[in-house]
Design goal:
The protein is α/β, with parallel strands linked by helices and 224 residues long. The chain contains ten helices and six strands. Helix 6 links the parallel strand 2 and strand 3. The mean pLDDT is 92. The protein has a six-stranded parallel β-sheet with strand order 3-2-1-4-5-6, with helices on both faces.
Amino acid sequence: MAHIRGVILDLDGTLIDSMSIWHEIDIAFFAENGLELPDGISEQVAKMSIDEWASFFVKHYVPALTEAQVIARIEEMAAEYYRDRIPMKPYVTEFLDALDAASIPYGICTATYRSSANAVLTRLNLLDRMQFVLTGEDFPEGKTQPRIYLSAAKRLGAPPEEVLVVEDALHCMETARSAGFQVAAVYDPAILPEDWERAKAIADVAGGNLEEVRLASLRAVRSA
């Protein structure tokens, strides 16, 4: 790993243990529209941005709804989880403390709603620690394109090759890697086994949790 001047953190699955709640929301949303959740649909839409998901649902399932209605309803359903229930993942505080001790700035890039992100970060006392929180509302294409990461790098005042992106989702790691960022893969149970193997192969460092990522990063820097 090269010298790191900034860190971009994912939110869902990296800082907070939230990946399973999206499947619950998918089931409830389909049910209230008189539909059963098709097999594999949660995995299919996991890579989509908020706007893409809404367009997909309206086009294939309930054309009577507008995309704006779908977006608003999903945000409403997610709000209670983020405001009251989703826990922090292990070693988040320790990971951020280590970055602070090294005077490395950091912020969040997330595909989720700004209201949800702010609610959970406030409850977990993390919001004030972030230099920025960029969301899917700022970048409708989500993380399928590198624009959100490039914007974050500008805020960190460093070029992509000197910024570490910490992610749990393979497609996000691939996007960041394609744009020249260093990548850390952190494990989440929602990731498919084959995707985790691919993630470890393309990442600069990988770990089962943020403490393992921190230690792996230190070893990589010392051996560079």
